[in-house]
Amino acid sequence: MKCSKCGAEVSDANAFCPQCGQPLSANAPAGQTAPQQPQGGYPQQGAPEYAQQQPVYVQQPVYVQPQPVYAQPQPVYAQPRPVMASPAEKAALFSTAGGIWMLVAAIVFTINLITSLVNGVLTLNISAIVGVVLLILMDIGFWLTFVSGRKKQLGTKGISLIKVPYIIQFVFLVLSFASDLLVWFFTLNVISLVVGILTFVFQCICFASVKKTLDMAGAINANHSVAGRKAGVFAAVVMIISASLTLASDIISYFMTELILEALKATPVAFLAKLLGSGNVMTLVAAVVAFLASIAVAVVLLQFAKRIKKANG
């Protein structure tokens, strides 16, 4: 027989259609419903079995939003620009460098060089000969400064040739003072000890002030103003005091030799002949000329101070 619903061929013995579950009126018992069909329309019996498939998850790409990186701003410090040297300061430097007192200082310094050289050769003093080499460099610096100052084109070589040997000379001065201090201490020479210490102190102050003045001259030459800074007055005054004490120390050292003790017993002519033959007179002459050279340089510093003060009002 055929199902009245789906038209499938059904056996006469079936009460329900195996395809759609339609009850067959001739064979279905009263009150009986068709068996529940599985989802998909297939009967429970004889239904095809499918292998259970595992779900496949596709990994989705994860996009990370890039965070903006902000550069830490570095603090910018304004570099203070040096004040330019005024024309009056330039004129003060050039007029001082090429003036008459600078010429006098160069000439006296050359004489000091000659006397120091002769004294070093006569006494065979190695430290004096080394000092002569430094004096040669400083003397060249004085002449270069004078010549360039006359041309209103001051170069850096002249100032450097004065300053660098001056610093080296100060180092030798410290070493010499240390050795003399030991001699004065062990010989109990009180006068030489006191004068030597005072001389060294003023020489240290003189070195610092002169170097500062040379730095000021170099600053003006580099077109930098030195307004508001002390000029060379203090350096000049201290240099005069230091030179005076140095001369006094040299005279004391000179007159405390055994020649003076022998002079008390000898005639003046014999004493003078002995002095000239010993070479000690040249030591005293060199000390006097060195004193005059320091005075000439001090006058140059005073002239520089006066002109700079006038330029800065």
What is the helix tally? 9
Oligomer type: single chain
Q: What structural class do the secondary elements suggest? A: mainly alpha
How helical, in percent, are the residues?
Answer: 55-70%
The secondary-structure element order is: HHHHHHHHH
Mean pLDDT: 76
Plain-language structure description:
With 313 residues, the protein is mainly α. The chain has one domain (87-311). It is 63% helix and 0% strand. The protein is built from 9 helices and no strands. The chain has helices at residues 87-97, 100-123, 126-150, 156-187, 190-221, 233-255, 258-263, 268-278, 280-311. 27% of the residues are buried. The model is unreliable at 40-47 (pLDDT under 50).
What tags apply to this protein structure?
mainly alpha; 313 residues
Q: How would you briefly describe this protein structure?
A:
This protein is mostly helical.
Which helices and strands occur, and which strands form pairs?
Layout: H1 87-97, H2 100-123, H3 126-150, H4 156-187, H5 190-221, H6 233-255, H7 258-263, H8 268-278, H9 280-311
Helix pairs in contact: 1-3, 1-9, 2-3, 2-9, 3-4, 4-5, 5-6, 6-9
